[in-house]
Structure formats: structure tokens, C-alpha cells
Amino acid sequence: LPAEILTLADLNQGDTIIELSVLGQYYSTMIAEAIGPNGNLHMYDLVAFEGFGAEAGNAFAATHSNTEYRLQDYDNADYPDGADAAYLINGYHDLPARDNDPAAMNNALYAALRPGGKYIVIDHKSVDGAGWSVADTAHRIDANTIIEEVTAAGFELISDSSLLAHP
Questions:
Q1: Which of 45, 77, 83, 129 is the most exposed place for a label (fewest CB within 10 A)?
Q2: Mean pLDDT of 158-167
Q3: CA distance to 37, 50, 86, 146, per residue, from 21 (Å)
Q4: Measured between alpha carbons, how far is 57 from 68 in angstroms, rounded to an integer?
Q5: Burial of 84 by CB count in 10 Å (0-12 exposed, 13-18 middle, 19+ buried)?
Q6: Within 13 Å of residue 99, how many CA atoms lie on the same side as its CB?
């Protein structure tokens, strides 16, 4: 499944990618390889997760010349201009509880991506209508809430995949 997820954004050699919530570098490893030595992977973890990811993120960046790691809040991060895609995997539900503004982050990502750039959001799905109500306790969010917030920033929904769906 990881390859299918990464191809949702048409990942290519030489791409510039923004990856948010990189704790553990699971997808970072695959992205760095897929974009090759001429690509650039800009990895970010929330400041609130410094103890969970900063050491590993910095170590990963030190051993992968096409990557850089930053510990910044996503709503005011130093994103590269003209990026080809952004990935936020299993971290959207963490935003408000970690003092991040999802609308500000989505707007910043929209501005950072090149025209036609893609934004992939994967998260644990709560029941329809739950909104943000269980985000901090059950670490899940209503998929429709994400869609509404992301499209409000200017993004267009082009795919709603069930690749990772589990009843």
C-alpha cells in the first residue's frame, strides 16, 4: 500500500516534497528514494513533538543529502516555494490540540505548492459528523471535516481513497 499512497500525488524523480508529521520517517525513506538525488524532501514535525521526533529527524536528514528536517508549527512553517506535493500522514487530527491552526496551515501549504501541486492528507477516520470532537481523545477526525477545511483553502478534491480503510 505505501507505493499506491505515494503515487496518489504523482511522485517523480526531482520533485520537491513537503512532508508533515514525519515521526519515524516511514514515508520519508520511500519519498527520499523516489525523488532521487535531484529531488528535495522538506520534513517537518510539530514543535510539540520535539521529544518524539527531533533526534531521529535530524539523524535522517544528516544521512540523506536530498532531505532537510525542521521542527516547526505547521501554520507558520518555512515551506519551500513551488513544491510539487505535500503529504500530511496521520497528523491532521493533532493540530488544534498542539496549538496549530488548520486553516492557516492549509492556506500556507496552498501558497507553497506550485499550480497543480497536490496535497495528500491521510488520517484516522472517525464517524461522520464527529468533526474534531474526538481528535484529541481517540486520535480520529471526521473525513468530511478535513475535506471542508482543505477545500476552503483553495484545494480541489480529486481523489478520496479507501486504500487504508479498515472497518
A1: 129
A2: 75
A3: 22, 11, 11, 16
A4: 9
A5: buried
A6: 6
Distance CA 25, CA 36 (A): 16
Write down the H helix ranges in the chain: 2-7, 26-35, 50-63, 102-112, 143-152
Q: Identify the pLDDT of residue 167.
A: 67
Dist. CA 5–CA 27, nearest whole Å: 10
Q: What's the grid cell of residue 49?
A: 513533538
Tell me the C-alpha distance between 36 and 31, whole Å: 8
d(CA 120, CA 107): 14
Supply the pLDDT for residue 161. Answer: 76
Output b/e per residue, 36-50; b: 16+ Cβ within 10 A.
eeebbbbbbbbbebe
Q: In angstroms, how far is CA 10 from the centroid of its own chain?
A: 15
pLDDT at position 163 is 67
Whole-angstrom Cα distance, residue 69 to residue 58? 6
User: Reduced to 3 states, what is the DSSP secondary structure of residue 124?
Assistant: coil
pTM value is 0.92
